[in-house]
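Issue 218. Parser rejects a valid record. Input:
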Amino acid sequence: MSDTDFKGFSVPETISEEWREYISNLPSPALFQTPEPDDLEGWRKFHDRGEEDMIKANLGLLEEMDVQWKESEINQIPVLTLLPKDYKESTSIIIYLHGGGYTMLSAKSRSATAALMAESTGLKVIAVDYTTAPFAKWDKIHDEVLQVIKGLLSEGYSMNDIVLFGDSAGGGLAASVTLHLRDIGMGLPAALVLWSPWADITETGDTYHTLKYSEPQFLYDVTLSNCRDAYASPQDWKNPYVSPVHGDFDKGFPPTLIQGGTKEILLSGFIRLYQAIDQSGHEVKLDLYEGMVHVFQSKLPDSPESKVAIDKSGDFIDTHLGQ
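Output the parser choked on:
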């Protein structure tokens, strides 16, 4: 199969057969229209659309993986706890922050992603079911995540025991919460793993133009701009707690793995975040994959590209938790 223009994006020969088929069968990203930022009823319906089916599918995958799960609360914040097959009690733990443009999905409808990391590391994963925008703005969402971390610390965990893991908006949230933790004196987690992080919610960076029609799953103007506006007011868009690429990393930051694909409109954000952390003298790895789409790891986890990326993520966590 040669490079083919398909609904505005290419399907390159340089990726696996699984991914060529996946990309070729995607609908036009122009169809993924989000509600206006202040349309609460529209967002409620948009969030709920397909959520039940996604939860059913994700929990089915957990059963296939033999990953145990339970719902509970930590400091009154709902969470999902996942334990991999043959789990051995450990002082180390992973906190997962799900993606979805800050406006969509949930801990249960993204539970298979958390399970992939549990399986890769053998560790317990806590998936935070934070309130999505516009029903909560960025500051309330931050507070919910901070409450979960405070609750884990009260249970006897230390910051050195904790890894933050997030995908897409959850990756941006993991990085920004880490800056917040540092600034309020709570310390730093042992490491971060960020899959396709939304590191800058403004439409800033070269790939917002060069890859505008290359990401086959969404368009910024059609999908992301309303998510951005639902999550934060314009005066907050460049706040490091909203767009972590604008953070002051000289004050400290944990070892960080950033993964993404070369089709992603958000690619400039990955690069800018990598450069900001690296130039401040902290350990950071930018791990890019040819022809891959946004958060490719969880979409086809058995594909060659995804297997490599998931294994690297698990190895990175093991290294920095001393497993």
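Fixed in the parser; the record now loads. DSSP finds eleven helices and ten strands in the chain.
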